[in-house]
TrEMBL record:
<dbReference type="GO" id="GO:1902201">
    <property type="term" value="P:negative regulation of bacterial-type flagellum-dependent cell motility"/>
</dbReference>
<feature type="domain" description="GGDEF">
    <location>
        <begin position="432"/>
        <end position="557"/>
    </location>
</feature>
<keyword id="KW-0812">Transmembrane</keyword>
<keyword id="KW-0472">Membrane</keyword>
<keyword id="KW-1133">Transmembrane helix</keyword>
<dbReference type="InterPro" id="IPR050469">
    <property type="entry name" value="Diguanylate_Cyclase"/>
</dbReference>
<feature type="transmembrane region" description="Helical">
    <location>
        <begin position="308"/>
        <end position="334"/>
    </location>
</feature>
<dbReference type="InterPro" id="IPR029787">
    <property type="entry name" value="Nucleotide_cyclase"/>
</dbReference>
<dbReference type="GO" id="GO:0043709">
    <property type="term" value="P:cell adhesion involved in single-species biofilm formation"/>
</dbReference>
<dbReference type="InterPro" id="IPR043128">
    <property type="entry name" value="Rev_trsase/Diguanyl_cyclase"/>
</dbReference>
<protein>
    <recommendedName>
        <fullName>diguanylate cyclase</fullName>
        <ecNumber>2.7.7.65</ecNumber>
    </recommendedName>
</protein>
<dbReference type="Pfam" id="PF00990">
    <property type="entry name" value="GGDEF"/>
</dbReference>
<dbReference type="InterPro" id="IPR000160">
    <property type="entry name" value="GGDEF_dom"/>
</dbReference>
<dbReference type="GO" id="GO:0005886">
    <property type="term" value="C:plasma membrane"/>
</dbReference>
<dbReference type="GO" id="GO:0052621">
    <property type="term" value="F:diguanylate cyclase activity"/>
</dbReference>
């Protein structure tokens, strides 16, 4: 064979190998770049899913904890056979009930093994007793298990056979010191909650929530949820690890769980085999509810490797004609665009968009890749900005709602306490005197009984307007609870408190509300207190409350 032929053959082989390795390097680089982007996308997605899916649940958990700390409820739980304490406790819990999103709650007392449940359908004078718990019944094992394991908070999906409902329950212990007195909580309707998850599901990911042991607590496929996970045997539970294809994926996900628990609210990732494909599992531990959130993302949806197959042919044909030209063009066609793309991805990691600059000599495959990247990165940044705006708006709205009474738009108890905490600090530094006026509506229950709760709500709104009109710019009015209002009078003295109290108690300008074409005169019992040295908010409230009850018990025409 002639030297020319041998040279051409050798050169062709070398060029073919060069083409192959160039194409392979390109593919590896692209996989690393897109894989890095997928991890960033997964981390942002899992945090977004946590906020939008668990925010209602975390709110219910916080309400359940506040509910368990009601003083009247604790007193009754210590003496479950005292009817007076029971009546007082149920009166307080019924006032609290509308704050739960489901409008229901349960109380299970250790002292008498009784289970009470209220969803607003029974009359107000009922004691809401439903059934007696039995330690020998498997359906009641949750109650004794929570107390035995001393779980301050327990979340589980459980069907209540006696009530005929399936809910996502948040269970909280009633305590006095170290003594456990019972369990209280509320529930979210499971079907409604799962439907909301599915409606908000991202098209590229599948979300589920598990216990630390891996039993599935929430998933869009209700058949895979592990009911009553506290009392079920672990080998009978429906477990996330059983969704994986092999033992290696199982072990890797378990180790990812351990890493996530060591760094709560930090996202850990692992590539596992599920449903026959590679999937990126993003895991985050949520300490507020002792659950793990897992998002599975099919990596293949983000790695269009088929677009790279033509690149090998382009390189092979080009390099056959001239090795020197290939070496010169390689930097222009491949290396520089990749560097631009990598630089742009680094900027994207810092939430900035830097457009890759491509020369006209860049290969078409690179241009298509960069075009895809441009579209994806712009979409991601837009999606992130929209998410941040939604989260900020929702957070601000939730903050406002948590401080305001929805009926009267006045400060609620929590909002007024926060406002008073700030005001007390100003008092301690500036010593500007102020006072509190406790206003209780006389015979408000008779209005509800005679005209209905809708009329009662109207009266409360008119009372709020009336009190604001009397106080004006000199104070702040709050709805302390039920038919009880508190007024902060700024820069007050004994005379100014007496003047406002006289207006509220006098008959010169009474509040008259038109209810169903009848003029109803609203009367109040009023007590006031002026701030004194070394006072706390509780001290002032106590004196105002005591003064109000002195007026109420004295009787009025």
């Amino acid at each position: 064979m002639a030297i020319k032929s041998r040279f051409l053959i050798s050169t062709t082989l070398i060029l073919l190998l060069t083409c192959f390795f160039s194409w392979l390097s390109m593919r590896v680089l692209a996989e690393d770049i897109i894989g890095s982007w997928v991890e960033r996308y997964a981390e942002k997605q899992v945090r977004y899913d946590k906020v939008r899916t668990l925010l209602p649940l975390i709110q219910e958990v916080n309400l359940s904890k506040e509910f368990a700390n009601l003083n009247a409820l604790t007193l009754w739980a210590k003496n479950p056979h005292d009817d007076n304490l029971k009546a007082q406790a149920l009166q307080e819990t019924e006032k609290f009930r509308p704050r739960f999103s489901d409008g229901s709650y349960f109380i299970a007392l250790k002292g008498n093994d009784r289970y009470y449940y209220s969803d607003g359908e029974k009359p107000i004078n009922s004691d809401y007793y439903r059934y007696t718990l039995d330690a020998s019944k498997n359906s009641d094992a949750w109650f004794y298990g929570i107390m035995e394991k001393n779980l301050d908070l327990h979340l589980n999906v459980n069907p209540d056979v006696e009530l005929g409902v399936v809910k996502l329950w948040s269970d909280v212990l009633i305590r006095e010191g170290d003594e456990v007195l019972g369990v209280v909580g509320t529930g979210l309707d499971l079907s409604t909650f799962l439907n909301q998850m599915v409606e908000k599901q991202d098209i590229y990911s599948a979300i589920l929530f598990t216990s630390p042991e891996g039993s599935i607590q929430l998933y869009q496929n209700e058949a895979l949820i592990s009911f009553s996970s506290l009392t079920n045997e672990s080998n009978n539970q429906k477990c996330i690890f059983k969704l994986l294809d092999d033992e290696a994926s199982h072990a890797l996900l378990k180790s990812t769980y351990a890493l996530a628990k060591e760094s709560p609210n930090h996202v850990e990732t692992a590539v596992v085999k599920k449903d026959g494909v590679r999937q990126l599992a993003s895991v985050i531990y949520i300490p507020e509810i002792d659950w793990f959130q897992v998002n599975f993302i099919d990596i293949n949806n983000f790695l269009p490797f088929t677009e790279f197959s033509g690149l090998l042919i382009v390189f092979a044909i080009s390099l056959v004609f001239a090795l020197l030209i290939v070496y010169l063009l390689l930097a222009v066609i491949v290396t520089k665009p990749i560097a631009e793309l990598e630089s742009s991805i680094r900027a994207l990691g810092e939430n900035q968009y830097k457009a890759p600059k491509l020369s006209r000599f860049a290969g078409p495959e690179i241009k298509r890749l960069v075009a895809h990247y441009r579209n994806i990165s712009k979409t991601l940044l837009s999606y992130q900005q929209e998410l941040e705006e939604k989260v900020a708006t929702r957070t601000a709205e939730l903050s406002r709602l948590s401080k305001r009474d929805p009926l009267t738009e006045l400060y609620n108890r929590r909002g007024f306490e926060m406002h008073m905490a700030d005001y007390m600090q100003k008092w301690e530094s500036a010593r500007t005197p102020f006072g509190l006026i406790n206003v209780d509506v006389d015979r408000f229950k008779s209005i509800n009984d005679q005209y209905g709760h809708g009329a009662g709500d109207l009266v409360l709104q008119r009372i709020a307007d009336y009190l604001i009109e009397i106080v004006g710019e000199n104070g702040e009015v709050s709805r302390w609870g039920g038919d009880e209002f508190l007024i902060l009078v700024k820069q007050a003295d004994v005379a100014s408190l007496a003047l406002i109290s006289k207006q509220l108690l006098g008959k010169s300008n009474p509040l008259i509300v038109d209810i169903k074409s009848q003029n109803v005169t609203i009367q109040f019992s009023v007590g006031s207190a002026l701030v004194q040295e070394e006072d706390t908010l509780a001290d002032i409230l106590h004196r105002a409350d005591k003064a109000m009850y002195a007026v109420k018990f004295a009787g009025r025409d």
